[in-house]
Prior knowledge:
single chain; globular
Amino acid sequence: MTTIARSQSRIAKIELQILKKTCQHIDTPRSLAVYLLAHYGELPQLLDLEINPDHYDDPSAFADDYLVTEMIKKSKAQDFGIDRELVAFTKWCQAEMQCSDANDLIESFMDGRVIPTRPHVNRVIARAIQICHDTLGPLTSRTLAFIEQSMEFGPGATASVKGVVTRGRKFSNPRLTTSQRLLSFGLFCLPHLWKQHVNEFTVQDYNELSFVPKNAKTHRAITIETDLNIFVQKGIGSVMKRKLLNIGIDTKNQWLVNRNLVSRAWHDGLCTIDLSSASDTISFNLVKLFIPNDWFELLCWARPEFSMYKGKKFPLQKFSGMGCGFTFELETLIFHSILLACKELRKSKQPVSTFGDDMICGLDIMNDVIDTLSFLGLKVNGDKSYGKSSFHESCGADYFRHVSVRPFYLRYGNFDHEEKLCLYLYCNLLRRYASHRNGGYTCDGRFLPAWLYCFTRIKPDDRLFVPNFEFEDSGIVGNLDEAVPSRYTRDGWSGWRFKAARRPAVETRRYTAGAYVASLSKPTEFSYGRESMRGRSRACINKNFYSLTWIDLGPWI
């Protein structure tokens, strides 16, 4: 067994112990059921366990059962006997079939051969299309210049740059991959400083379908785009971000708006709507219907027409998937336009907000929104959409009535790191949740046994106390009397000195020329000829840090 496999096995056992100790002290019928499933290794049954918020009247009782039901469902360490990549690929294929059906239906709708059975859907679509057109505006030379100035590489891999991924390596790459449509852009439009390092262009008409961990049941489908395609896509996406400001969507902090709205959804009569495989079910003709012709041609210019998986090439029925540099902005624009159209036509007074496929609107327009989305070939996720309910969730915020009931998840996945970093994290997840359950003044003592289990597994020399949850994976967050840090005074300020574990990034100087080009296009960590290698780090070291304040979580009670 490899070192990583052994580490994964140990962390899996730690997670089960945390779950069982939590269940023992929650002490409800649901926690007993979860304890027994975990104790006897019935993990697949545990994954299938669901909770219905409509069966609860008390936020605290719901929070208890919600926590034990959910806390292990995103684990990366447990072996649930599921081929998660196969599950995800099957779902991706189903989404392609859904897009194919949607393309046929929308084409018939555009030709006038099909009309919605519910008249209001037709009015919503017409108004939403107009909102999309008004938001994007004409594709002027000035807009095109903004797009060109905003082009950049994302942080992840490309078709020709995998493994060691740095921005410098991407700009130093002598052989760029590109779709046929973007070949002329590569030949004639690349900045000279970059182009002088390019010796060859390889035409590739497909992206590479890949999968990353999502939860214990399935992976998430992503695409690895060709070099020039992702470079151009990111520029288009950046300008679409600016355009979204015209309809009140700031993608930098819209998730905070959603969280604020979901906190008062029960009181204010709001609903949350979530779509199944949203990015993978935005069909080609859906984009053609909603987006102005000049913008549509631009998006088509940058998108691939095929995806490759295990040597097989699939013609895409969707417009783009996660991994494409403008997918998030595109879906936000389309979905928010539909919300705005429904709100306007129904003269709703309720706020609407969209962040990707996380939508919030008033209950008075919920049915109109769902009818419209369904007609356009999109499937509402009933498990994560909530109307007239005591429970609502959006953008990582879960509320029962007006009380936050968001559970914590045991999902540590860095099995090549030292085990103590996992224990730090799980100690702090337990402590923060315990503090939250008691309003931030004390810590719920029911979670103390699980916390002690993690704490005592950390070697005494490694028990580093840190002042707040910004260091949650670098030490143990504890009160001042637990930590007893050193007082530090200098240059007129007084604070605390403490040690925290850090894994310094591995740096490289191999791609200096490309790193210079990267630093000209966007601020970068590149300095003195070195840049950090994404996902690579050295062994843990304990470093000194300083803080003006120290957290007070109160006692365990």
